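Intended use. Records like the one below are meant for learning the mapping from a protein sequence to its folded structure. Do not use them to infer anything beyond what is encoded.
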Amino acid sequence: MNYDPDKHHRQSIRLKSYDYSQSGAYFVTVVAQDRTCLFGEIVTGEIKLNDAGRMVQAVWDELPIHYSGVETDAFVVMPNHIHGVVVLVGAGPRACPDVGAGNPERGQPQGVAPTLSLPDVVHRFKTLTTKRFADGVKQSGWIPFRGRLWQRNYYEHIIRDEKSLDRIRQYILDNPARWEFDRENPADLVGS
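Structure written out for the chain above:
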């Protein structure tokens, strides 16, 4: 089949003209390729993570450690997707640790730390989890994934106020109990 730009083009689902590197809170959903359940299972309304699911949780928890200007909030690993809140904060000056001890400039601000955009954060999350998952397949016999660990894109929602943030936090917290009705549940016949 030949490429036809009128038929075979992908359009961004991002909000046009919005700067996704500006400070703020963002709700994201990232789904496993083919909605394959790789991270655990739901038992009586609670997520029971397997080793792969615990790895995904660990990568999420480590994001603020590795990337200045990135904080995380509510988060849940589901059998085949994640929901989380990423908070981008204005990164402040950073110290330069390489300057010698005798140098009076040691520890002085050396410019502004680069700030990641939301797409950068999601990309790094996907990359880190994919690498660690592939290692788990090779070293620990985890279920292999086909092609990619994660679907190409992700869902995002800009959180504009505290009320919305509270509602999203509750949605994330309640998500395992609602797995039976979740549109990402491959067994969900209602949402398909």
